[in-house]
Amino acid sequence: MDIKLLGLSLLELSYIVASVTFILGLKMLSSPDKARKGNLIAGYGMGLAIAATILFKEEFSPDKWLNYSLILAGLIIGTVIGVRMALKVKMTAMPQMVSFFNGMGGACAGVISLVEFDHLRHGGEVSTGMLIVILLGLIIGSVSFSGSMIAYGKLEGKIADKALPAGQIINILLLIAIFGLAGFLAISGNLSMPMLYGLLTLSLLYGVLFVMPIGGADMPVVISLLNSFTGMAAAFGGFLYGNQAMLTGGILVGSAGTILTVLMCTAMNRSLTNVIIGSFGGGNAASAKSGEQGTIKEISVTDAAILLAYANKVSVVPGYGLAVAQAQHTVHNLEKLLEDKGVELTYAIHPVAGRMPGHMNVLLAEADVPYPKLLEMEDANEGMASTDVVLVIGANDVVNPAAENDPSSPIYGMPVVKVWNAKNIIVLKRSMGKGYAGIENELFFHPKNRMLFGDAKDSLEKLIAELKNL
Amino acid sequence: MEEILSLFYENREFIFLIIVSIFLGIEVISNVPAVLHTPLMSGANAIHGVVIIGSIIIMLQADPGNYYALVLGFLAVILGTLNVVGGFVVTNRMLEMFKKKSK
Description:
The complex is a heterodimer of chains A (470) and B (103). Chain A is an alpha/beta fold and 470 residues long.
């Protein structure tokens, strides 16, 4: 039998298997029981595709020893760093970690285009189609890389929200320049390296300026969008090499990521255009309502503990503050203590509470909070009127009544947890600072509301100590 | 125009595959509960790390004397590995917590 044919057949077979594992993996990730298995299956498929490519893609020739050693070295270096980072990262820092790894994929796609463009210069037939694919891979990969890095920096708190004046106009001009230059390169067949680097610079700049003005409340949407960008960039690579595994993997993530992005926008009742152009956190409308603030009532730890102990139904609304304070285990302890006292406690999970959709679910799952206690927002809102005490822990924008009654508010129209329908509200908060959207929250001045200032974890621990003394 | 037509014709099977994959991606995701949005995004993130195969192909095909391709390809292999390995490990860590609880 022809050895070469055997190798190539095994290669294609492994790509088919890998594509199937990606589809199965994504499918299984959609159900809680099978999700972990799905992730592992897709991981094995990926390993198979990588190994088969190294073994069977090209015939081994001894004078390419440097190529092979560099591949192995790259794989080892990447694995060591990747595993270390992934194991060390705290649960609260997950969103930025995903954004970081996403940026790496985007950069990889961009670098591939740089090499392939150069490859065309040294022989090889130049076709417009090929050039378009290479250039699009470069543009999308670079935007995804620099955008993800900015998103990472913002969530780490290293980069502040900044909106350039006339930022939108600059962005549109940049886009025109990028596609003008790419169009020129593709149509003229001019393989100028300086122009390619120009295109790279413009694309990187666009990624930075695109994410820079977007406020943290919209960060989940942006990360999801960049995720699907990288998927598309990977698909362009697949098109370039006629590689089915890259194509299916890339396109699947591209389309699934787009749908996920749309789902998130729906949860916030906004359109994608609005998220991108609206610059949520710009703070322009922020101070509009500051004139009509009422008074703020504080509550002591003892009073709060008594209120909770004698309630029938308590609902906890967690937010990013819970994640920052690492208070997920403490809140679970409070929950068990209250259950022992016969209080019915549930969690009301806003779909975009935290910095990523499902962020709160992941966090509370870490603390072993049982599934059935996590209510989705609609269910939680239905039971709100019969709830005695709502405990808002480090959440702000997702409980802001302005979303319902203030058309001038930037979050007007976003579905929120209607905590004001409950009998009592206690807000645990570090200070009177604004939420990530940078707007006032009149809930804090609501007659039913009382504030318990302090770090969420400290306050919860004090509450637990008080409850034990009752 | 002829270029585009021939591009379409030569790649008709890929274009078919792309369109089917788009619908598949939409179909597979549409019923995911909010609980799993973060792990799903993270898992999808790991899957697009398949772009690493492109960087391996570059390395395999590069002329041993072409240092431009070798250096950039090496960099791309590291970047792609980070995406794949980091992505899958992070996702697994998130999902481990879900598993522990369902017992």
